[in-house]
Design brief:
Layout (H helix, E strand, L loop, with lengths): L1 H9 L4 H8 L11 H9 L10 H7 L3 H15 L19 E6 L2 E6 L2 E2 L2 E2 L5 E5 L7 E7 L8 H11 L2 E6 L37 E2 L4 E2 L6
Parallel strand pairs: 6-7
Antiparallel strand pairs: 1-2, 2-5, 3-4, 5-7, 8-9
Helix pairs in contact: 3-6
C-alpha cells in the first residue's frame, strides 16, 4: 500500500524537485559540445541576492585553498598530450573540485551544489588538453555570468575559435551579494558596485602572475 501511494505521489512532483535534488554539475559532462557544457555549468551560478554576510564568508576560500588553487591552475596550464588525468587536486580542494577530460579540453569544475546552485561558486576553467592546440597565449574570462546574458557563450566561442590558452568563468553573478564594494566608488550612489562584482572589487581576490590569470574572476 505504501509503495503504491509513493508511486502515485511521484507523479505530482514537479521536475524542478528532481533537478534540485538529483542533478549536479557532473551531469553537465554528458553535453555534446564545449559550448553546451559551459551553458550547463552556468545554470549553477550563484544567483542574485543569494548571500548574507554569514553565508558569503562561509563560501569564501581559506588561505590554504587560495594557495592550492594557484598550484592547481599551474598544473592545469601545464597539461599536454591529452593527459588531463595527470592534474592532481590539492588536498584542500578535494571533494570540491574535479578535473576531467572533455573532448579536446581539460576542464576544472566545482562538483558540489545544493538545490541547483554551486556550494562555493568559485568558477570553472577549461584549457586545451594539448599544447599543440594553442595558437595564442591569451586567457579569456567571463566575469559577469547571468548578469550580462550570453557572455559565457561568447567567451567560450572566442576561446575556441582563437585557440587561446585558457577560459575562466566566474561562478557567482555580480549581484550575488548585495554589499557595496569599497574598491571602486561609483559616480552615483543609486548604482553601487557589489562585493561579488569582480570588475569592481578586489578585496577578496588574488592574482597568479605566472599564469597571468586574475583569480578575482573566481574569488570575487
Amino acid at each position: 500500500m505504501f509503495t503504491t501511494l509513493w508511486k502515485i505521489g511521484l507523479q505530482f512532483l514537479p521536475w524542478s524537485y528532481f533537478a534540485a535534488n538529483t542533478v549536479t554539475p557532473t551531469t553537465c559532462l554528458s553535453s555534446s559540445t564545449l559550448l553546451a557544457l559551459v551553458s550547463c555549468f552556468d545554470t549553477y551560478t550563484v544567483p542574485e541576492n543569494f548571500y548574507t554576510a554569514t553565508t558569503y564568508n562561509a563560501a569564501q576560500p581559506t588561505t590554504t585553498q587560495r594557495a592550492d588553487w594557484r598550484v592547481l591552475v599551474q598544473r592545469l596550464l601545464s597539461v599536454d598530450n591529452g593527459n588531463c588525468a595527470a592534474v592532481s587536486i590539492p588536498s584542500s580542494l578535494q571533494g570540491i573540485y574535479g578535473v576531467t577530460s572533455f573532448q579536446s579540453f581539460c576542464v576544472l569544475y566545482e562538483v558540489t551544489s545544493s538545490a541547483g546552485t554551486y556550494d562555493k561558486g568559485w568558477g570553472f576553467m577549461a584549457v586545451p588538453s594539448s599544447r599543440s592546440q594553442i595558437s595564442r597565449h591569451v586567457h579569456i574570462s567571463a566575469p559577469h555570468t547571468h548578469y550580462d546574458t550570453g557572455t559565457v557563450e561568447q567567451a567560450t566561442a572566442i576561446f575556441q575559435t582563437t585557440r587561446s590558452n585558457s577560459l575562466l568563468v566566474a561562478g557567482r553573478t555580480r549581484t550575488a551579494y548585495l554589499e557595496p564594494s569599497n574598491c571602486i566608488i561609483p559616480t552615483s550612489p543609486t548604482q553601487p558596485y557589489y562585493m561579488t562584482d569582480p570588475a569592481h572589487n578586489n578585496v577578496s581576490s588574488t592574482c597568479e602572475s605566472d599564469s597571468e590569470i586574475c583569480l578575482s574572476m573566481v574569488f570575487p
